[in-house]
């Protein structure tokens, strides 16, 4: 049994690639973001229903309940559209958080000091004592502009008199919210989105619904003073909490400043110090389960392909292949099903480099001749070895002749017609008896000649003749004519 366990472990290590590790890591990060979102999502019950349906699909697939699997697969498109409709605001917020997420640096925010906390605490305490309704929004890291409507820009430094004047019941903007960024009031009289979760309001009014509505949409901290009861509440992370004392508010504000603004560590360090390891561990475990369920294949799969054979560097080796040569081979490859899914058959080729080939030598197909990916192996080849008839080429020097057609115009007579070079070095099979006595160019049409000129012409190369690699087929032909005497 121990031996079998060792074999299974070895097989697992052989089949696991670096890409698989990266794959699991990326899915773990994605699941970590999703799980954090679910913890704060206002639509948690719907998510549980979708997860249950997905679990049913997995069970149906592995239990071979084909009808159930087929039905759920048919519903996937409808479910996907439903998810987008139901969770559109949550999905948008998730992507905004990803856009704002920087791993190795901290985001810059407006400056502040402890006086800001003291000013807010003292002003809120006084308004609670006088039962003056108030709504203060402290911006977090996320952009809240799309959630805020109306209001009047201020860009003023926060102070107790300024807050009391804004929330004075006789002031025109007292029913709206004050938007704070650091120690500055950037807007007042703003309108916030109202929450539909009435069960979370605990008897609160419109201000509490507005505070909770914004806290459900972003990471801002909202302070509410009730004008009916004179109570102080805070809304954050989709929850509404009634405070027992002003000192509790001061502690929450200091914690908010430290978390959102003052931290000097990178988000990665802050995450580690927050010790949110249970969510991270759950994400990794789920990613590994998904990988084993849908990606990892332990059994070895064998597949056969017809693969083209290429012969390279024939010219540099002065070889010529004669008669019929094998152009394809049948290769049986072994590997995991996952490796075959990622494999592009069109790129597979058997390649032989004939630079140092000796006449009569057998060409053997091995893994070194096949461009296989690292996760596939060569299991069987047909044929294993190739017998190729190859002959060495010998160099010959052959004169060049220029054929003509037609005749010169009657007023002209031909003096000479010469190629730019008298002969050409060519290669031919050493034992051939068909080496031509001369190389011909394309014919020159004399009827088109009006004066002495030089024309380019291509050489006509027989099939058993090969030009050197650096030699052009085109040569110049000099034609000299003169006018006839009367």
From TrEMBL:
Transmembrane stretches, start-end: 12-35, 66-87, 277-296
Domain (DAC): residue spans on this chain: 88-246
Presence of the UniProt keyword Cell membrane in the record: yes
Top EC group: transferase
PROSITE patterns associated with the record: DAC
Alphabetical keyword list: ATP-binding, Cell membrane, Membrane, Nucleotide-binding, Nucleotidyltransferase, Transferase, Transmembrane, Transmembrane helix
GO terms assigned for molecular function: adenylate cyclase activity; ATP binding; diadenylate cyclase activity
E.C. code: 2.7.7.85
Record has RNA-binding as a keyword: no
Catalytically driven reaction(s): 2 ATP = 3',3'-c-di-AMP + 2 diphosphate
GO biological process: cAMP biosynthetic process
One Pfam family hit: CdaA_N
Quaternary structure and interacting proteins, as annotated: Probably a homodimer.
Entries under HAMAP family matching the protein: DacA
Function: Catalyzes the condensation of 2 ATP molecules into cyclic di-AMP (c-di-AMP), a second messenger used to regulate differing processes in different bacteria.
Family: Belongs to the adenylate cyclase family. DacA/CdaA subfamily.
Protein name per Swiss-Prot or TrEMBL: Diadenylate cyclase
Gene source species: Halalkalibaculum roseum
